[in-house]
Automatic annotation (TrEMBL), chain A:
Protein name as catalogued: Formate dehydrogenase iron-sulfur subunit
Source lineage: Bacteria, Pseudomonadati, Pseudomonadota, Alphaproteobacteria, Hyphomicrobiales
GO molecular function terms noted in the UniProt entry: 4 iron, 4 sulfur cluster binding; electron transfer activity; metal ion binding
Domain 4Fe-4S ferredoxin-type: 4-34, 47-77, 78-107
Organism encoding this protein: Saliniramus fredricksonii
NCBIfam families: FDH3_beta
TM stretches of this protein: none
Record keywords, A-Z: 4Fe-4S, Electron transport, Iron, Iron-sulfur, Metal-binding, Transport
SUPFAM superfamilies from the UniProt entry: 4Fe-4S ferredoxins
TrEMBL record, chain B:
UniProt gene name: fdoI
Coiled coil: none
Native species: Saliniramus fredricksonii
Main location: membrane
InterPro entries assigned to the protein according to its UniProt record, in alphabetical order: Cyt_b561_bac/Ni-Hgenase, Di-haem_cyt_TM, FDH_cytochrome_b556_subunit, Formate_DH_gsu
Residue ranges crossing the lipid bilayer per the database entry: 85-104, 131-157, 177-194, 230-251, 263-285
Cytochrome b561 bacterial/Ni-hydrogenase domain mapped to chain residues: 121-297
Protein name in UniProt: Formate dehydrogenase gamma subunit
Amino acid sequence: MARMKFLCDADRCIECQACVTACKNEHEVPWGINRRRVVTINDGLPGERSVSMACMHCDDAPCAAVCPVDCFYTTEDAVVLHSKDTCIGCGYCFYACPFGAPQYPRVGNFGTRGKMDKCTYCSGGPEADMSQAEYVKYGSNRLAEGKLPLCAEMCSTKALLAGDGDIIADIYRERVVTRGYGSGAWGWRSAYGETISV
Amino acid sequence: MVQTLLKRAATLFAVVALITFAAPELSAQQVNPTESAVQEEQLMRALQSGEAVSGRITIPDARAGDLIKPDNKGWADTHGGTVKTVNVAAIIGMLVLLIGFYMYRGRIRIDSGPSGRTIQRFNAVERFAHWLLAATFIILALTGLNLLIGRAIILPIVGESAFGTLSGWGKIAHNYLAWPFMAALVVVFIAWVLQNIPDKTDIEWIKKGGGLFTKGIHPPAKKFNAGQKVIFWSVIIGGAALSFTGVMLLFPEIAGTSAQWQFYQVIHAIVAGIMTAIIIAHIYIGSVGMEGAFDAMGSGQVDVNWAKEHHSLWVDEKLAREGRAAPSSGGGAPQPAE
């Protein structure tokens, strides 16, 4: 089975925010929650690079490790999902995630946060695939239809790659060799414990 | 006309020559943005503890500007590692210790047997504050421990859906009962701090092991013996630490950065584990461990023989005080047997 990953080629990202907009629209993500975001490093300076970041669906996900109610699970495609029914909104996953993927919809008393929401790799949640219940809670399930995440599909420069980890690593490697430079597969060391060497 | 043409051709030739030969020098002064591109590896290596690789974002929430925070994985490891180990070891260790102590010493009896007469040890205010503190502590400890090891122990038994509901209510109970706990802690402190200040009697008491390990040994003690003073100060200091860190966790905006929240959370969890172990010992000695001890908090009235054996100086002080006062009404200290 494929091991799904994201790779954002920072040397191609033009910060157009198409990935952000695609995700928000496709899943009708509520106000204030940003499943995917674009971060620009060294803004305005030579060597400025932009990186599109959402959940990296890590090996050994730290969010799953700290969850007090064990609401996370990993699918056969190595996508890390969670159950909003079981989630108690304690906030631990946010403090464990190196990428800031978990988001919460509410600001209530005593740190009440509501149910955690995050990038699902466009593969929904524990509800039945492509059902209305799944859509309302987690957004659309493209993986069940055999499609890849919409953020990567809508990327205007093909900076954001999504798919089997080995395949997208090869694509990135080929790019680095062809153009002669690459600022790195951002987040891969933290998420998967590996880098892409050329 | 040819002359103008020639002149213009010469000017053109000069300009082109100038550009061609000057160009390499120009490009040598230009910045090559590709070579100065920021590298992920460089940035990660330059990070100090608590720092993140961060940049500019279009989102109002400033926390979204942090791209990669490697320290977060460190907190996750600490939470699942050190914190869990300390909690489990403290609680199981204390239970093993108490079982061992009970097998060695058994229940500590009143050596001269119960007299059947009582004197008042704790009044209604003291007992109310104690029981409010105790009841809230037990629920806080259980709901807090559930967040740490519940998924290993209770989840397999009740299933995910029920466990999620249970833990959700547990979290709410924990957040709300924190406040009466803190209030009771203040009352307990005010009521007993003066009688818990260590003095010379405590040194003698400790030297004799409090009489814990040998039958018939009863070192003198005032209202609170040295062992109780240890409990009192543990509760006050531990409780204060839990209260402060707990409030930080309840109001994350006040806690500050993620690194600060994580620090408070680790302190909260470790102190909670140690306090739970200490309170288990306290519950033991106040119930199973010692005959006549529970009455002090149960009804407030303790057997006179028990009091003479375990708090002889307190009994003397109390009877002297009440002897000097006007004759007490029924329910006050009865005269000791002749």
